[in-house]
From TrEMBL, chain A:
Keywords: Cell membrane, Membrane, Transmembrane, Transmembrane helix, Transport. It holds the Pfam family BPD_transp_1. One of its GO terms (biological process) is transmembrane transport. The chain crosses the membrane at residues 6-22, 27-44, 50-70, 91-114, 156-180, 201-227, 273-298, 324-346. Residues 152-345 form the ABC transmembrane type-1 domain. It is found in: Cell membrane. The keyword Iron does not apply. Belongs to the binding-protein-dependent transport system permease family. It is a multi-pass membrane protein. This is Peptide/nickel transport system permease protein. It comes from Thalassobaculum litoreum DSM 18839. The lineage of its organism: Bacteria, Pseudomonadati, Pseudomonadota, Alphaproteobacteria, Rhodospirillales. InterPro entries: BP-dependent_transpt_permease, MetI-like, MetI-like_sf. GO terms for cellular component: plasma membrane.
From TrEMBL, chain B:
This is Peptide/nickel transport system permease protein. It is found in: Cell membrane. It comes from Thalassobaculum litoreum DSM 18839. Keywords: Cell membrane, Membrane, Transmembrane, Transmembrane helix, Transport. Residues 98-304 form the ABC transmembrane type-1 domain. It is a multi-pass membrane protein. One of its GO terms (cellular component) is plasma membrane. Gene3D superfamilies: MetI-like. InterPro entries: BPD_transp_1_N (IPR045621), MetI-like (IPR000515), MetI-like_sf (IPR035906). The chain crosses the membrane at residues 12-30, 98-125, 137-159, 181-201, 243-265, 285-310.
Length: 353, 319
């Protein structure tokens, strides 16, 4: 027993008693179950396990604080509808927005933020962190932090491009299929059924083995694989709109296909489509990262998070956490986008539960 | 009963047709190569004689349709041709590796399925409480993380910092006993369990909440039935269909999501074989692996559909 362990339990028990006294039921439940879990973990893992829990709780508190401050900031900065919507947003959503903003800044201003170039060799292989290099060097002696920053541009950029491409392709086909119906609709639906019955990673591997690996092929392949999912959703959403009376009226007015899609159907199906874009981005991003991790995606020397994990993976066996940074960067962005999408879906559908 | 049989048969037939179309897709995708397979294998510097010899050996002189029918005929009998790199029979290479992958997937499934369903039901019953919110954030995080991130985190904390489990699952099935096998493959299995449990928990929670919102459950509650009886007698019979669906879909995910996990842990499964063959451009192996993955995926989706039909009287007796 030392001061840390005593202080740790005293703080937890004190906080849960306070929560119980002021009858904040949810906080009490959370704190007290944490105390019980700590008892077990502390007995099994000793003091270091308690330190881990403390650090995790600290990071969590920092995230919550950031999210809370960012929400207040957005409420003040934005105006009208946006401000009102943000005010009721859960903290997870504003945390997601904050992370997305950080990544966007890192990606756009990468050359200014990064202290070194993305393929610049400045030290020995796997050199440890010093005052020049925040996170140390990778297997060729390139600055890991600079590569992480450039990776925000390359990895996210390619995923974003592929998602946009897939989305335009799928949404356009879906809208046309829903509006025209008949033969085109049937044909597209069957094609989509077949593409969707092959797992996406397997399909991507098959196509990559044939076409070779470069960025354009990658974007093209991913667009082909993910367009069907967008097609299905768009067709379903637009299908509900097409049967409305005002579409009938527009048809009787003699409006063309393009006008119907652009002015009547699209404005009435944007909310689910935007949420779908976010979800789709997560899938595409994970696929790009996975393919790069397998050495079949974005090719070196371009800085990319997936291949960075693979290149530095040997460090793991020496107990270094460096390879986890790029992998964590991938996870953090996907989580952030998912949080925001969750909130948007909740808002657009009034979904309960 | 004959009704059910005909519906199931119809569904099976549809699955078979899909598989046939996919086999066409997989075979003719290779035909899209600039030049042909012989050229792709031998590269730019190949002499005309070498090309000719290889074409002869691979039977590329015949029209594509014949080769497809021959390939399909072989595939149905378990003969996928010969590897371009090693010259060994593809079926021989794939066989033990497929068994290894199935072992890993079922190992993960046996752990994941009961935990996920139990946790999903608990979370659904406790919905909107603080536990539900925490579980929501945790499962969302687990789903969003790439498999290799989870894998490396587990290696770092359970194999390197605390040497409890071996980091690499480069196992040889003949040499080690059953207990040792489970011990060595624990970390890859745990990685998949984490991802699959998160998925299944969310899906189970959604379907149970959907069910609990229906009027007849409220009626049962209002007439004073005890809570456990509402769950066991009223909710559960109708919950089977969605739960079976969730399980089958996630098993399908297990079979395909195994690729990244196998690479992280250097596990000698079919996923790693597929990745290696894609890098080496060994087309017969790639085609065979893709066909096997697609067939498994379709089969499990089919099982989900059939399960849903069998457990749902409304689907069993369509109007």
């Amino acid at each position: 027993m030392n001061y840390f362990v005593i202080g740790y339990y005293a703080l937890l028990i004190g906080a849960s008693c306070l929560a119980a006294y002021y009858s904040v039921r949810s906080a009490f439940l959370l704190l007290f179950s944490l105390t019980l879990v700590s008892f077990i973990v502390g007995i099994v893992g000793g003091e270091s396990a308690l330190w881990t829990i403390t650090i995790c709780a600290g990071i969590l508190a920092l995230c919550i604080g950031t999210a809370y401050a960012f929400r207040e900031f957005l409420v003040i900065v934005l105006w009208g509808e946006g401000s009102k919507a943000i005010k009721t947003a859960p903290l997870t959503a504003t945390f997601g927005l904050f992370v997305i903003m950080t990544y966007a800044i890192a990606g756009i201003f990468a050359p200014i933020i990064a202290p070194y170039g993305e393929a610049e060799v400045i030290a020995g292989a796997f050199a440890p962190a010093d005052e020049n290099m925040l996170l140390g060097a990778d297997q060729l002696g390139r600055d890991l932090f600079s590569r992480l920053v450039f990776g925000a541009r390359n990895t996210v950029g390619i995923a974003l491009l592929a998602t946009t491409f897939a989305f335009v392709l799928g949404a356009l086909a879906g809208l046309i299929a829903a509006t025209l119906g008949g033969f085109f609709d049937n044909l597209m639906s069957r094609v989509v059924d077949v593409i969707m019955s092959v797992p996406s990673l397997i399909f991507a591997l098959l196509l990559l083995s044939i076409m070779g690996t470069n960025a354009f092929v990658l974007i093209f392949i991913i667009a082909i694989i993910y367009a069907p999912r967008v097609f299905r959703l768009t067709r379903a959403v637009a299908g509900n709109v097409v049967v409305m009376d005002y579409i009938e009226a527009a048809r009787l007015r003699g409006e063309g296909l393009w006008y119907l899609i652009r002015r009547e159907i699209l404005p009435n199906s944007t909310a689910p489509l935007i949420a779908e874009f976010g979800l789709e981005f997560c899938f595409v991003f994970l696929l790009v990262a996975g393919l790069s991790f397998l050495g079949l995606g974005i090719q070196p020397p371009t800085a990319d998070w997936g291949s960075m994990v693979r290149e530095n993976a040997t460090l793991i066996s020496f107990g270094e956490i460096t390879p986890l940074f790029p992998a964590g960067a991938i996870a953090l962005l996907t989580v952030a986008v998912n949080f925001v999408v969750d909130w948007m879906l909740f808002r657009s559908s009034g979904l309960k539960g | 009963m004959s009704d059910v049989l005909s519906i199931v048969l119809k569904r099976l037939g549809l699955g078979l047709i899909t598989l046939l179309v996919i086999s066409i897709l997989i075979f003719f995708a290779v035909e899209l190569l600039p030049g042909d397979i012989a050229q792709a294998v031998l590269g730019q510097g190949a002499t005309e004689e070498n090309l000719k010899a290889l074409r002869e050996q691979l039977g590329l002189n015949q029209p594509a349709i014949f080769r497809y029918l021959e390939w399909l005929g072989g595939a149905v009998q378990g003969d996928f041709g010969v590897s371009l790199i090693s010259g060994r029979s593809v079926a021989e290479t794939i066989g033990p590796r497929f068994a290894a992958t199935l072992f890993l997937a079922s190992y993960a499934a046996v752990i994941a399925v009961p935990i996920a369903i139990l946790l999903g039901i608990i979370v659904a019953l406790l919905r909107d409480s603080i536990f539900d919110r925490v579980a929501n954030v945790l499962t969302l995080t687990s789903i969003s993380s790439p498999e290799f991130f989870l894998g490396y985190v587990l290696i770092l904390y359970l194999a390197v910092k605390n040497p409890w489990f071996p980091a690499l699952a480069n196992v040889n099935f003949q040499d080690i006993g059953t207990v040792e096998l489970y011990y060595r493959t624990f970390l890859p299995a745990l990685t998949m369990v984490l991802v699959v449990v998160a998925h299944m928990m969310r899906m189970t929670r959604a379907s149970i909440i959907n069910l609990l919102a229906s009027p007849y459950i409220e009626m049962a509650r209002l007439k004073g039935t005890p809570a456990w009886k509402v769950i066991v007698k009223h909710a559960l019979p109708n919950a089977w269909a969605p739960i079976i669906n969730v399980v089958a879909l996630n098993l399908a995910y297990l079979i395909t999501g195994v690729v990244l996990v196998e690479v992280v842990f250097v596990y000698p499964g079919i996923g790693q074989l597929l990745v290696d063959s894609v890098t080496k451009r060994d087309f017969p192996v790639v085609q065979a692996c893709c066909l096997i993955f697609a067939a498994t995926f379709i089969l499990l989706n089919l099982a989900a559909d059939v399960g849903a039909i069998l457990t749902n009287p409304r689907l069993r007796h369509p109007k």
